[in-house]
Specification:
With 505 residues, the protein is of the alpha/beta class. The protein is built from 21 helices and 6 strands. The strands form 2 sheets. Strands 3-4-5-6 form a 4-stranded mixed beta sheet. The radius of gyration is 29 Å and the shape is elongated. The two termini are 57 Å apart.
Length: 505
């Protein structure tokens, strides 16, 4: 007798360990989470300032947004240890609003974008993640690694020569440190050592303070001064919708990536709701909004080993403390140290297995093509959403073409030559059924024709229309047709639609 293993219930399926309480009770785990949050906060500062510049707003807007969103998502999000803050993808989408209409319309766009995300989450948009194939996911990860790496170029071009050895030393420290101890995150050690070296030897290299002015006060409630009219909605709605879609797609893809890395399951609908709520809170305090930050999430999860919401919460708290109380100290951190951290993250993020010669030989060409399309589209447009959408479309087209070739029609004639029998084998949908009508010998067949569908399945109206066309062609030749072998579902579908899809030509 075979033993049946019960499936895990929903609560245990989404229980991710260590939990917050387990981390709080363990000095070792808590230390790891605290230090991870500190490293992420240090890496967030220059990024938030840079994204503010992209969006065309004051650097303080990006910093406040990153603080509010990181703290909010720690409580509201569905994926522990994931970092949410101001991002370049969102900055690029909504930058025209600040440039053309001003700050009030910009904040109104962020608020509306957050509300749209909440609505999309309630409509179950997170469930669409199941339709993203593995090849698109691999392409997304590889494109992301390339974008993280190339985004460091501005800090490596036209800079003092000392920057290059500093970056090299930072990479060496982060490579060797885990071999000595993993108690302290290697990126934090690299940042501290390089900052100390720059201060002691008074080297003149670009630092965080050169990126923009740091805030000196807490964020305050911000109510945008815009008229509540249809005209205002016409202005901000397209940008808010684009922000909502890009933000959700990037956040849910990041959550899935962390799921794979940590071998856990997270609540994607809750994550989508949390992202929307965090954006609303960000806008309410004058922030620029954002989504999951893949680079910082990889620093938190991969480089620092964080696993709980404590690291996410502390990343936001440390960010605020660093820029308000320790702004002068943060300002002297050399950009070379943070560039080294991001380069290491890009190397760790890239799926090197996907481009090995042995993998490429084994992988179907269509899968490799989808991965490359995703990578090229993402890197070309600097928009992860565009790359993923084009990758999914390419995967759908290639899947449809591949499945279409699996349909075969076999013709036999009875011994008395009175009946022609056709056996249809395969999945019938728009891509495969359009050629179905060409597989029959209308003029040469005897007066009775039987079409056996027992080894096929009718999936759509295109197939019913094709069957109607076949019957009509035989009737024009004065011959009778019997369709048999349809399963109950296909038969009910066929009976409901047949004769109601045109004249069959």
């Amino acid at each position: 007798m075979t033993a049946v293993t019960p499936t895990r219930d929903s609560a245990s399926r989404y229980r991710i360990e260590p939990t917050v309480m387990q981390a709080l009770r363990s000095p070792r785990l808590l230390t790891r989470e605290v230090l991870a949050g500190l490293v992420v906060a240090l890496a967030l500062i220059p990024e938030a300032i840079a994204f503010s510049i992209i969006a065309g707003v004051d650097p303080r807007v990006g910093l406040f947004s990153s603080f509010i969103m990181a703290v909010a998502i720690a409580f509201l999000g569905g994926r522990p240890a994931m970092i949410t803050a101001a991002t370049g993808a969102i900055a690029l989408v909504i930058a025209p609003v600040a440039r053309e209409y001003g700050m009030d319309y910009f904040i109104a766009t962020v608020l509306l974008g957050g509300l749209i995300q909440i609505v999309l989450a309630l409509l179950g948009v997170a469930k669409l993640m199941r339709f993203i194939p593995r090849s698109v996911m691999v392409g997304f990860v590889n494109a992301l690694a390339i974008l993280i790496f190339t985004s460091q170029f501005p800090q490596l071009i036209g800079v003092p020569w000392l920057v290059y050895p500093l970056v090299a030393v930072g990479l060496l420290v982060m490579y060797l440190m885990p071999r000595i101890t993993k108690v302290v995150p290697a990126p934090l050690v690299a940042i501290v050592l390089l900052t100390a070296a720059v201060v002691v030897f008074a080297w003149n290299v670009p630092n965080v303070g050169d990126q923009g002015e740091l805030p000196e006060s807490l964020p305050a409630l911000f109510i945008p001064n815009v008229p509540l009219t249809f005209e205002t909605l016409q202005i901000i709605a397209p940008y808010a919708l684009a922000m909502a879609v890009v933000g959700l797609l990037e956040s849910l893809m990041t959550a899935k990536l962390v799921d794979d890395i940590t071998d856990t399951h997270s609540r994607k609908t809750r994550e989508a709701l949390g992202q929307g709520a965090a954006n609303v809170l960000s806008g309410a305090f004058g922030g620029m909004g954002g989504c999951a930050m893949i680079g910082q999430t990889m620093i938190n999860v991969k480089a620092s080993g964080a696993r709980t919401r404590i690291s996410t919460f502390l990343a936001g708290v440390f960010l605020l403390v660093l820029v308000l109380a320790l702004g002068d100290v943060v300002a002297i951190i050399p950009m070379a140290a943070l560039v080294a951290v991001m380069i290491l993250v890009s190397i760790a993020t890239f799926d090197w297995h996907s481009i090995r010669l042995s993998t490429l030989k084994r992988m179907p060409k269509s899968e490799t093509a989808v991965m490359l399309i995703t990578v090229i589209a993402t890197v070309w447009t600097h928009n992860l959403a565009v790359g993923v959408i084009l990758g999914v479309i390419a995967a759908m087209i290639m899947f449809a073409r591949r499945v279409a070739h699996f349909v075969s029609v076999t013709r036999t004639i009875d011994d008395d030559a009175s009946t022609a029998r056709y056996a249809v084998n395969g999945e019938l949908f728009f891509a495969s059924s359009n050629d179905l009508t060409t597989q029959f010998e209308y003029a040469d067949d005897p007066d009775t024709v039987v079409i056996d569908m027992s080894r096929s399945h009718v999936w759509d109206a295109s197939t019913v229309a094709a069957l109607d066309a076949i019957v009509t062609k035989y009737e024009h030749h004065g011959k009778s047709v019997t369709i048999e072998g349809l399963n109950d579902t296909a038969a009910a579908f066929h009976d409901r639609l047949t004769g109601n899809l045109g004249n069959g030509h």
